[in-house]
Amino acid sequence: MRGIDFLGLSRIARQSQHCARDLVLIIGRELPHGVESLFEQFCHRQKISPSCAERKRVFLTPLRPLLRRSSHWARTLPIVSFDLLRSSPVALMPVSDALAAVLAGAEPLPHEMAALDAAFHRVLARDVAALRTQPPEAMSAMDGYAVRAADAVTVDSTLTVIGEVAAGRPFAGSVGPGEAVRIFTGGIIPTGANAVVIQEDTVADGKQVTIKEAAIAGRHIRPAGVDFSEGDVLLRRGARLTERDLALAAAMNHPQLVVCRRPKVAILATGDELVLPGSKPGHGQIVYSNGYALHALARSEGAETIDLGIAADTLESTAAGIRRARESGADILVTSGGASVGDHDLVQQALRDEGIAMAFWKIAMRPGKPMMHGRLGAMRVIGLPGNPVSSYVCAFLFMVPLIRALSGRSVIHHRHERAVLGKDVGANDMRADYLRARLEERDDGALVAVPVNHQDSSLLANLAAAQALLVRAPFAPRAEAGTPCEVLRLPV
Ligand SMILES: Nc1nc2c(c(=O)[nH]1)N[C@H]1C(S)=C(S)[C@@H](COP(=O)(O)OP(=O)(O)OC[C@H]3O[C@@H](n4cnc5c(N)ncnc54)[C@H](O)[C@@H]3O)O[C@H]1N2
Ligand code: MOO
């Protein structure tokens, strides 16, 4: 038997139990000879049953039969997979566990004041109550005449105009029997009047006005407080302020609002091969693209971004980039590239040298398997894979909710939407799949998700053409066009 012993197996199983799942599968690409008996010994010592019954917490199973199986449990169980042939087992963390790890302890950043004109898209740190009643008094909704309805129920009644009220210029007197006051939209209804007759329904003649359409009590009058009353809480903590919210806050008489500080996201690319767009790439060079999507995505979520440029494929250069991120006071460091297992993939080592507390490396997802996450002091680190689609998809799935949580937003998760498959998809393996898909609308209004033909994680043209990620759970069975599926809409 290669590479696995009793202690190794125990370590794997202990690690697998740390992911706080009710049920865990330990999966080997193939099970080395003898591992079953080790597993039985392990289960015996841990007092867990190695058989397939419902009470068990840990299963050992070879991958192939599992993939062939389409029974309910194989499709729906959370999976932690370990390569049993390696002496140091490597876990692929389930997406939901990885997201929980990224979001662990992510509290809203400290509060600050923002003037209204700088508060667009900021996140409220406190509920906002109205400082006044709106409108503060009954107001006219139209240009016309404020009257006592009882005096103007008959067509052709003639009233004496005793004054005028415009927005901001109230009428000091009161309207008595047989009297009217000329009024304009936004004018305060004078005492005594209880209706407005619009000017199109009147004939004016000097100080006299003749009513051509019977008045109705309350007509064209906005009662005091019809919009809101002093003390009403109309904007809630955690809301990202829209332009409509800003107008409302202004009407509530708030010149500034208490918001959460924006997260600072530092972005560090790695790779000797990268050259900037517009240059003349040499043989084997690749045009840098990931950062453009990452900066824009982070900013559109309300973060401030810091560009740390491109580190060379050396530990020194990568570590220098990481230190610049710390010096800049970044809340989040996002690296791209160098996350995998190649000789030039140095990000993990550089982060470890800088003292990172690594939470995970490798997720059971496609694209994006080699993503890593950890903390360097207060700074959260998301190590994205270099492939452009992997880097974007991971940023969308993990960086965005983290930015939202630190920004203080009450809704941080992407919304899964129901759709139907636009074409057949094959059975999935142990990694959750995030297929780039176009969205179409069927005649009956149903949303149809059509996965693009080529899903390779280097294909930016396909990513740009997609409007959604079609989510396929680990071990999802083959599914035919027309069957329900779940999608995450990509930002527009
Ligand atoms: N033996 C294995 N090889 C690979 C594995 C594995 O498990 N075993 N995983 C594959 C997967 S999945 C991914 S994803 C990639 C990720 O690798 P890295 O994070 O180390 O990325 P790089 O090697 O640095 O780059 C990959 C690819 O992307 C290009 N790149 C990188 N940064 C940028 C950028 N800022 N703009 C545009 N393009 C970029 C880079 O030039 C490479 O072509 O590893 C697989 N390999
Ligand atoms: O999983 Mo990697 O992210 O395919 O390219």
From TrEMBL:
Required cofactor(s): Mg(2+)
Entries under Pfam families matching the protein: MoCF_biosynth (PF00994), MoeA_C (PF03454), MoeA_N (PF03453)
Pathway noted in the entry: Cofactor biosynthesis; molybdopterin biosynthesis
Enzyme class label: transferase
GO molecular function, one term: metal ion binding
InterPro entries: MoaB/Mog-like_dom_sf (IPR036425), MoaB/Mog_dom (IPR001453), MoeA-like (IPR038987), MoeA_C_domain_IV (IPR005111), MoeA_C_domain_IV_sf (IPR036688), MoeA_linker/N (IPR005110), MoeA_linker/N_sf (IPR036135)
GO biological process: Mo-molybdopterin cofactor biosynthetic process
UniProt keywords, alphabetically: Magnesium, Metal-binding, Molybdenum, Molybdenum cofactor biosynthesis, Transferase
Domain called MoaB/Mog: residue spans: 266-405
Record-listed E.C. numbers: 2.10.1.1
A single Gene Ontology CC term: cytosol
Catalytic activity: adenylyl-molybdopterin + molybdate = Mo-molybdopterin + AMP + H(+)
Entry-linked PANTHER family: GEPHYRIN, MOLYBDOPTERIN BIOSYNTHESIS PROTEIN
Similarity section: Belongs to the MoeA family.
Biological function: Catalyzes the insertion of molybdate into adenylated molybdopterin with the concomitant release of AMP.
Name of protein: Molybdopterin molybdenumtransferase
